[in-house]
Design the sequence.
C-alpha cells in the first residue's frame, strides 16, 4: 500500500461471510498498486437506508450490493444506470463526488461467462430458479442473447409473477412462471435446453443441498449455478454425472467484479490474478 489517501470500496449484504469479493478485489488492487481497499459489511434489511447514508457520508468510492438488497437499494440512490433500471436490480454503486449512481454488472458477468464457454442460447428454452437480483440479471441476459422462452421458477410464486411482469416491459421474449416444486420442474426440464440456479441452495456450508433432484437432469441440458462456494456444488456434480454441460458460478463472480472494478478505478482489472486467488481459496490451497 502506497502512502496517501486510500479509496475504500465495500460489499453490503446479509450474509457476506462467504463472499470472495474482498479477496478478488484486494488482489486486483495490489496487482495494479492502487491505493484502494475492499471490506465486507453485514447489513440487515432494516439497516439498509442508514448503511447507504453512512457510506455516502464517509465518501466510500464504490459499493457492491448482494442478497437481499439488490432491488431495495435503488430507492436510496441518486441516479440509476439505464440497464439497472430495466433489470430493476443494482449490484454496483459508484460514488461520484457525493452522487451515488447504481449499475448492474451481473448482466455483463453472465454474458461474458456464456461467451467464454461458447454457449449459445439463441432460440433455446431456459429455466431460471429464483426471483431475486441475480435471477433478474440472468433472465435479462438470456433474453438479450435471443432465448426463445424463459421460465421463472420460485418457491413464492407471486415473486416470480412480479418479476416476469416487470421484465416483459424491457425484454422481448416469452416469459412464464411456475412454482419451484419437483412436479413442476419435472414437466419443464424435460423440454428445456438450459437451467440456471439463482438461489443460494447448495452454498457452503449447506453443500449437501440441491435445488433439483438428480433424476430430473439430462444430458441435453446446460446447467449453470450462480453459487461459487463450493466451486462444484451438488447440483453441478450430479449434472455432470448424467452427461449435462455444467457452468460454475466463479466466472460470473469474476466478470461482474471486473466490471465493477473498471467503474471504480477506470483501469482494466487483472482478471487472471483475480481468478487464481479465488481458485486457491476454493481449492483449500495455502494463500
Sequence:
Amino acid at each position: 500500500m502506497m502512502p496517501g489517501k486510500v479509496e475504500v470500496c465495500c460489499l453490503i449484504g446479509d450474509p457476506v461471510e462467504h463472499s470472495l469479493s474482498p479477496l478478488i478485489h484486494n488482489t486486483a488492487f495490489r496487482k495494479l498498486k492502487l491505493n484502494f481497499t475492499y471490506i465486507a459489511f453485514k447489513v440487515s434489511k432494516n439497516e439498509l437506508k442508514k448503511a447507504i447514508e453512512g457510506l455516502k457520508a464517509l465518501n466510500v468510492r464504490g459499493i457492491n450490493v448482494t442478497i437481499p438488497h439488490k432491488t431495495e437499494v435503488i430507492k436510496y440512490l441518486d441516479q440509476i444506470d439505464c440497464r439497472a433500471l430495466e433489470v430493476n436490480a443494482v449490484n454496483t454503486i459508484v460514488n461520484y463526488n457525493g452522487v451515488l449512481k447504481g449499475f448492474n454488472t451481473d448482466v455483463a458477468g453472465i454474458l461474458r461467462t456464456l461467451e467464454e464457454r461458447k454457449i449459445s442460447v439463441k432460440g433455446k428454452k431456459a429455466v431460471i430458479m429464483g426471483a431475486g437480483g441475480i435471477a433478474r440479471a440472468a433472465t435479462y441476459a438470456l433474453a438479450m442473447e435471443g432465448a426463445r422462452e424463459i421460465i421463472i421458477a420460485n418457491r413464492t410464486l407471486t415473486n416470480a409473477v412480479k418479476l416476469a411482469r416487470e421484465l416483459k416491459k424491457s425484454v422481448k421474449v416469452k416469459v412464464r412462471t411456475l412454482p419451484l416444486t419437483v412436479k413442476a420442474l419435472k414437466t419443464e426440464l424435460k423440454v428445456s435446453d438450459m437451467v440456471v440456479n439463482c438461489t443460494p441452495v447448495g452454498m457452503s456450508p449447506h453443500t449437501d443441498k440441491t435445488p433439483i433432484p438428480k433424476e430430473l437432469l439430462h444430458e441435453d441440458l446446460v446447467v449453470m449455478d450462480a453459487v461459487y462456494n463450493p466451486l462444484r456444488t451438488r447440483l453441478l456434480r450430479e449434472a455432470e454425472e448424467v452427461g449435462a454441460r455444467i457452468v460454475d458460478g466463479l466466472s460470473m463472480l469474476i466478470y461482474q467484479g471486473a466490471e465493477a472494478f473498471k467503474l471504480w478505478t477506470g483501469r482494466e482489472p487483472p482478471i487472471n490474478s483475480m481468478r487464481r486467488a479465488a481458485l486457491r481459496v476454493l481449492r483449500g490451497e495455502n494463500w
Summary: The chain has two domains: 7-104+251-282, 107-248. Residues 12 and 167 are 25 Å apart (CA to CA). The mean pLDDT is 95. The radius of gyration is 19 Å.
